[in-house]
């Protein structure tokens, strides 16, 4: 990992709800994932970011046990994801990037059919979830719009009250109101149940308010892992107020994540008042601390710098 704020890594692999340990994946001779180190605990919402082809869906495939790792491990509930019991699997919910199949069934038929595999889904029909999905139970799956299909996919992933949600671009086809309401619903659900979510999206502003940590992937590797508390409190764009270059190199210990479009703007991960006075002494002019970084500006700078 070339840059980032490390979240705490506990010692025991079995203790983590989700744990990737030097995970790698090759398709034929093509290395698609390499050396992924990732942990998530109950209550975590992990935003998985990365350009197209970075490896996000492949990583999710390894975590839901669809893909066998080529190297390393993908552990869920302390066990290899490919060896989970039925009971373990019923504790997971997965929204694929595109929902396919069952085209001849009606919405209600599919809900009832899949519900048989999840006793909790029958017991605890969530009125809020169904109201949000807003689907006509009699419509055939093949006649649903793209957004309605995505709503159905989300409904099916959440109905059985999973402890772990793996969501591959779940909001890509949702309208703005649907996206906003889904993210609120998701946040409430995860908080009430102390469940965990790994969620990918290219709409960074959606994930920023809900994520507890962010993982940025680039070319199959983890480029950065950010704790969002630390990101909000300590990640800042800094530059001199006269937009001139720094008179001396930035002090050692100031953790630089990236440089910005403005060549003298620097994104730092561990900003605090001590750095402010130190830099004010070093430079001839006052140092300006810009507004706290947004996830989008940080992502663009980090991915742009590394590309
Ligand atoms: N079954 C496969 N066989 C060969 N290559 C594959 C296979 N599945 C994925 N890949 C390759 O792995 C790389 C990562 O793909 P992946 O779908 O994981 O990326 P992603 O980050 O989810 O992208 P996007 O944001 O576009 O959805 C891509 O180069 C893709 O072509």
From TrEMBL:
<dbReference type="GO" id="GO:0005524">
    <property type="term" value="F:ATP binding"/>
</dbReference>
<protein>
    <submittedName>
        <fullName>ABC transporter ATP-binding protein</fullName>
    </submittedName>
</protein>
<dbReference type="InterPro" id="IPR017871">
    <property type="entry name" value="ABC_transporter-like_CS"/>
</dbReference>
<dbReference type="InterPro" id="IPR003439">
    <property type="entry name" value="ABC_transporter-like_ATP-bd"/>
</dbReference>
<dbReference type="InterPro" id="IPR051782">
    <property type="entry name" value="ABC_Transporter_VariousFunc"/>
</dbReference>
<dbReference type="InterPro" id="IPR027417">
    <property type="entry name" value="P-loop_NTPase"/>
</dbReference>
<keyword id="KW-0547">Nucleotide-binding</keyword>
<dbReference type="Pfam" id="PF00005">
    <property type="entry name" value="ABC_tran"/>
</dbReference>
<feature type="domain" description="ABC transporter">
    <location>
        <begin position="18"/>
        <end position="244"/>
    </location>
</feature>
<dbReference type="InterPro" id="IPR003593">
    <property type="entry name" value="AAA+_ATPase"/>
</dbReference>
<keyword id="KW-0813">Transport</keyword>
<dbReference type="GO" id="GO:0016887">
    <property type="term" value="F:ATP hydrolysis activity"/>
</dbReference>
<keyword id="KW-0067">ATP-binding</keyword>
């Amino acid at each position: 990992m070339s840059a980032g704020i490390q979240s705490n890594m506990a010692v025991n692999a079995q203790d983590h709800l989700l744990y990737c340990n030097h995970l790698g994946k090759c398709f034929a001779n093509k290395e698609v994932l390499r050396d992924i180190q990732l942990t998530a605990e109950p209550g975590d919402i992990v935003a998985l970011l990365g350009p197209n082809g970075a490896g996000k869906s492949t990583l999710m495939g390894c975590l839901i046990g669809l893909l066998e790792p080529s190297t390393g491990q993908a552990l869920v509930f302390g066990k290899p994801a490919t060896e989970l019991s039925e009971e373990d699997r019923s504790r997971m919910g997965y929204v694929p990037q595109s929902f396919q199949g069952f085209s001849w069934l009606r919405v209600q038929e599919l809900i009832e059919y899949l519900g048989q595999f999840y006793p909790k889904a029958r017991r605890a029909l969530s009125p809020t979830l169904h109201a949000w999905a807003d689907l006509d139970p009699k419509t055939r799956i093949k006649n649903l719009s793209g957004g309605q299909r995505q709503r159905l996919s989300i409904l099916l992933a959440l109905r059985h009250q999973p402890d772990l949600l793996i969501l591959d671009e779940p909001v890509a086809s949702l309208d703005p109101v649907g996206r906003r309401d889904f993210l609120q619903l998701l946040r409430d659900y995860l908080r009430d149940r102390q469940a965990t979510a790994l969620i990918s999206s290219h709409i960074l502003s959606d994930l920023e308010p809900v994520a507890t940590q962010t993982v940025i992937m680039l070319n199959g590797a983890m480029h950065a892992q950010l704790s969002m508390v630390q990101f909000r409190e300590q990640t800042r764009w800094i530059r001199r107020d006269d937009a001139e270059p720094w008179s001396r190199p930035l002090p050692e210990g100031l953790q630089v994540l990236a440089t910005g479009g403005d060549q003298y703007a620097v994104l730092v991960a561990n900003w605090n008042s001590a750095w402010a006075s130190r830099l004010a002494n070093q430079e001839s002019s006052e140092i300006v601390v810009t507004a706290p970084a947004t996830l989008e500006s940080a992502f663009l700078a980090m991915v742009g710098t590394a590309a």
